[in-house]
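Posting this for the archive.
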Amino acid sequence: MASAAKYDAKSVEEKWYKYWMDNNYFHSEVDEREAYTIVIPPPNVTGVLHMGHMLNNTIQDVLIRRARLKGYNACWVPGTDHASIATEAKVVAKLKEEGIDKNDLTREEFLAHAFEWKDKYGGIILEQLKKLGASCDWERTKFTMDDDMSEAVIKVFVDLYNKGQIYRGYRMVNWDPEAKTTLSDEEVIYEERQGNLYYLQYNIVDSDAKVTIATTRPETILGDTAICINPNDERFKDLKGKKAIVPLCGREIPIIEDEYVDVEFGTGCLKVTPAHDENDKVLGDKHKLEVIDIFNEDATLNSFGLHYEGKDRFVVRKEISKELKEKGYLVKIEQHTNKVGTSERTKAVIEPRLSDQWFLKMDELVKPALEAVLGEGKDVKLYPKKFENTYRHWMENIRDWNISRQLWWGQQIPAFYYGDGKEDFVVAETKEEALVLAQQKTGNKELTASDLKQDPDVLDTWFSSWLWPMSVFDGIRNPENEEIKYYYPTNDLVTGPDILFFWVARMIIAGYEYKDQRPFENVYLTGLVRDKQRRKMSKSLGNSPDALKLISDYSADGVRVGLLLSSAAGNDLLFDETLCKQGKGFGAKIWSAYTLTTLWEVSEDTEQPEHSEIAIAWYRSKFQQTLIEIEDHYSKYRLSDALMSMYKLIYDDFCGFFLEVVKPAYQQPIDAKTYTEVIQIFEDNLKILHPFMPFITEEIWQSISERSSEEALIVNRYPGQTEFNNELIAEMDFISEVISGVRTIRKDKNIAFKEAVGIFVINNEKSTDRLNSIIKKLVNASEITYVTEKVDGASFRVKSNEYFIPISKDNIDVDEEIKKLTEELKYTEGFLKSVQKKLQNERFVNNAPEQVIANERKKEADAEAKIVTIKSSLESLKS
């Protein structure tokens, strides 16, 4: 056995990760074994490791390492997502710093800069995951804009278009004025914000009358094309059929009637701006109103904005309200709380905007995915189950998916225009195929490729990642290939609940559409990582620790344990750095246990003592009992509970108890039989712990014995389940309490361990004496004697058994005992004085309830009796 030097986490982690990589342990190829597959939730290509990634990928690594040990052909596919909005924004910002305007570049020039950015920063997060110990199949690393992945996306778009599922429509969409692109409904986060309600007066044409409306957005009056009243509202019957004049711009607009108007809100009159509100657009279509768009794509006002042209909407809101007040149109302002939509990516306030966009019909596509999660068969199981209700709500209220984005970074939509009309386009995978279709559609054989102009928009990033479990195995382009048939459907998906709809639900939809199969069997939804004050961790709050520094400070194993100790299934993780310290401490405890075994001299001639034989039988049973617990936790995705079961087994039972029983006496050898079994037990501990603490377990495994590369812990076999002795476990639990009782008396009475003590037992429990050898060894008892009557000395109870230890000046440290009793006497006398002072207070005695007085008198009596006992003990010790 190698000598156990001080544990150096950094060198150990680097050594074994390189060893695993060099031996290709992470790589998977199709073979005769059963596959176990996980696909990574692809982080943004420009991302860096944060606490959410640490938690998510630690859980995945635990599952994949356990599957390897269980004999599965384990395949964990890593990769990154091109994250069109976020990445394009970063590239544009970088170009701006270099004095380059995106608008001055061709698409090809911009994409060259974007790919350069991706090549420089795109692999950072994957490299950081290696520091955590992530055992991904790095040879399979994918990027959502790899050529084959993009081909799959385009193929799916064309297929769904040809099936009539994708269409182009002029709709009110969510517009992100910072990213200058549309967003899907799911990418809009609604926040309650304090704002104002502005009451504005509109003059009535050919009348001295006025009408007052309330609006939260006074700048949009410049796009008003009607005022609407409820036909049943008697207050406004005189306005029917008349026209109003929009303040400032002087435009005449009709007063229309519709029961949509809430007579209770505001003034009961509604301004109608069809270009800037979804409900107003519905009213506008119904009443055939003019549509006036007052905003540019960056939410500055256009030429309809009068003298505000070119100014930002929020600047205009302040300035126009001031002008309206000065000109007598602003009646009053009230504070008002309303929900404001913000971009999930840029945090910009969303602007409703009419635009031509591409949509995917969802009403039919969603049905198999609803049945898969909520139907009788439960083909896809969500953990925790509580998320089924969220899933149902989203899926049953689903709207068509806006899949186009006004960006350049992403898969360009394969629609090719040959004319100016809205329907003058064809959809095809290549320009060559598009030309053939365009010639057929127009009957014009003179059309050439140069006559075709491809749609400039790209597809929503989620339209790439919804194919991820299939496309990483080339299952879209080559649906019958060997790998997709072997690895798909995958087994477990680990992700956050915040993308249950964005990604999880959509992958399920795609899986049934293209493979008629679920994409995965189980979805483990982790909680969000929060600080101790329950705030979500973020850079802006400054409450998110540096992930790599944590690894440097506490080791990768320590951080993994710290994360999972605080991560109950599906609940938010309240991260506390002290848990990483605890994880590091756990590693130190295991390393100390290993170091202890290296110090033992092994003797072939020494017989195995009875206490060692019993301890080995007990620990094997305890291990098997705990293994059942652990497997049950795994089956329910309660990884935190599984780890805690291991922690108690190894820290308390193995290190704290078992090794104490079997270790040889000072300067004595250990018998070979016990030593061999101790090492086998240690190895079983390492096997179950390896998924959680891969580095220290591999280091000890390789140091305990000489190993070939085929025998590395990472590819070893998980312990099997066998019968175990419940009765022996119960007996050991009982004697553990006895040992604890004796140790407490030794401590209280300052009896040095080298001084043997006698133990007398009134055995009311009829407990067996077969474990007495363990008691005697661990507490240094000279004899354990069964008696029928009490014995003078210190005593304690375990269940109905009574234990007595005679105390004499011969077996205690007299000076220490005198010191301790003197301090106890001083404290008790002080306590007695305080009680007596209270009882001498007539006001207290006359006013306090009878029971309170009785309690105080009992305290007095108890203290007096204790003082007598302590003084007696002191006299005895001093005599």
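The longest strand covers residues 188-204. The chain has a mean pLDDT of 91.
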